[in-house]
Write a structure and sequence with these properties.
Helices cover 13% and strands 34% of the residues. It is α+β, with helices and mostly antiparallel strands. Strands 1, 2, 3, 4, 5, 6, 7, 8, 9 and 10 form a ten-stranded antiparallel beta sheet that branches. The protein is globular, with a radius of gyration of 14 Å.
């Protein structure tokens, strides 16, 4: 599939952030809110048992940002995931936020939201319809707000896997 969000120069920036086991591999579009609608149930169905995912979000202020996870997304009662997870910003500024080792609050996903990072705030949080989100500094990744504002509305969300 083709990305509505990623231009070739941004793909190169994101590529530099990825762990070695993801290099020189193909990318496959799994989920796009413009194609599949805005529903967390559809998201969970399309990403089931799939590792090495990139979530890309564009807000209405045209900030482009997201998250990478080695671990597959699933409904869990507790935090899960690995220290290879990270948050990133691509537009207007390119920046990667890696695990600080201050906690292990990587992925948090329930029936009504998905999130990454914790310790005071979620680094990135999306509601069950993938139209409202929040990004605040968190201890896990020592990130800044990734979006145009801490509370944001999603223009588009895409999920890619590296196969």
């Amino acid at each position: 599939g083709k990305s509505d969000l990623l231009k070739s120069e941004l793909i190169l920036q994101l590529y530099k952030f990825l762990p070695n086991h993801c290099l020189y591999r193909d990318w496959k579009l799994l989920y796009n809110t413009n194609i599949h609608g805005t529903n967390i149930t559809t998201f969970y169905f399309l990403v089931k048992n799939i590792k090495n995912t990139i979530i890309l979000i564009k807000d209405f202020e045209n900030y482009l940002f997201g998250a990478f996870s080695v671990t597959d997304w699933r409904i869990e009662a507790q935090y899960y995931g690995s220290g290879q997870s990270f948050l990133f910003a691509l537009e207007p500024v390119v920046e990667k936020f890696e695990w600080t080792q201050k906690n292990d609050y990587f992925l948090c996903s329930r029936r009504d939201f998905i999130a990454m990072g914790g310790g005071g705030n979620f680094g990135l949080w999306l509601d069950s319809e993938f139209n409202v989100g929040c990004s605040k500094p968190c201890l896990t990744f020592n990130n800044r707000c990734l979006a145009g504002s801490e509370d944001f509305n999603c223009k588009s969300v895409e999920v890619w896997t590296i196969v």
